[in-house]
Amino acid sequence: MTANKAESDANNFSNKIANALEGIFESVALTRKQHFIENPIKRPTLQDIDSIVKSYSNQNALIAGATNLIPGPLGMLATLPELVAIIRNQIQMIYDLGVAHGKESNLNATLLLGLFSTVMGEGAIGLVAIKGKQLLVKKASVQVIQKVIFWLGGSISQKLLKQFIAKWLPVVGAAAMAIWARQSTINMGKKASEMLAMDIVTSEERVSEDDIPS
Questions:
Q1: Is 203 helix (H, G, I), strand (E, B) or coil?
Q2: For residue 208, is pLDDT > 80?
Q3: Are 61 and 181 in contact (CB under 8 A)?
Q4: Is 85 helix (H, G, I), strand (E, B) or coil?
Q5: Do the Cβ atoms of 192 and 114 come closer than 8 Å?
Q6: Strand partners, 136
Q7: 3-state class of 79 per DSSP?
Q8: Strand 199-206 vs strand 128-131: parallel, antiparallel, or unpaired?
Q9: pLDDT at 1
Q10: What is the DSSP letter of 120?
């Protein structure tokens, strides 16, 4: 595979992730809110935090472990539906943790996107910031949100391609995916819970498109 072809495949994968992420944060915010309205008995509390993280991490390990990996970097394209399912579960986990912490009124798409990018280890890209014991949520236009999602798609694809580039034997690859999915979800849950324990404050500051990496 030539360098240009490899770069083209990576860009294709990145764009597909970004397209899949479009609207997913808003969708999770709406569907989980409706879920808890219709099922108030299932509304989690602080005592449920560990079980929330465990449940979603186990779900994601099962999803990843069931993938049929095709040898070579192009095989990652075939795993896109499973990857999107894992990401959606991780976002839902963040929402559920927010409910457990009593922050449901703050759980909009912008906060979920900011938290998700932060707990992924990619930085909040200016959408959220920690100030003392407060979590500040900044305002962002639709254009800024779209640019953040496009950037996030590229960041996710680069991380996955680097992590699994040497693990493409089918059985080993699926096992590696399952381990990654479970552990990354656990790590994200712990970080998200710590942030959601803070007082959440809406800032008047707006995020500019220039603040988002190209």
A1: strand
A2: no
A3: yes
A4: helix
A5: no
A6: 129, 201
A7: coil
A8: unpaired
A9: 47
A10: I
Retrieve residue 12's tokens: 């294709």
Around 70, how many Cα atoms within 13 Å sit in the side-chain half-sphere?
8
Tokens of 198: 């803070």
Q: Scanning the structure block, which residue is given the tokens 């694809």?
A: 157
d(CA 175, CA 177): 5
Closest CA to 149 of 14, 54, 34, 59: 14
The string of pLDDT tens digits covering residues 56-104 is: 999 999 988 887 655 555 556 667 888 889 999 999 999 999 999 999 9
> Counting beta carbons within 10 angstroms of the beta carbon of residue 196, is it exposed (0 to 12), middle (13 to 18) or buried (19 or more)?
buried
3-class DSSP state of 206: strand
Given a cut of 70, whether residue 151 has pLDDT beyond it is: yes
Q: What is the dihedral of CA 102, 85, 51, 114, to 10 degrees?
A: -40
At residue 52's C-alpha, the angle toward residues 46 and 54, to 5°, is 130
Token match 């998200």: residue?
Answer: 192
Global pTM? 0.88
Q: Is the dihedral of CA 136, 110, 95, 178 positive or negative?
A: negative
Q: Could you read off the pLDDT of 33-65 as tens digits, one per residue?
A: 999 999 999 999 999 999 999 999 999 999 888
Q: Give residue 142's Cα distance to chain centre.
A: 19
pLDDT (tens digit, 9 = 90+) per residue, 13-33? Answer: 778 888 888 889 999 999 999
Give the pLDDT confidence score for residue 155 in this predicted structure: 82
DSSP-based three-state secondary structure for 72: coil
What are the tokens at 115? 């938290």
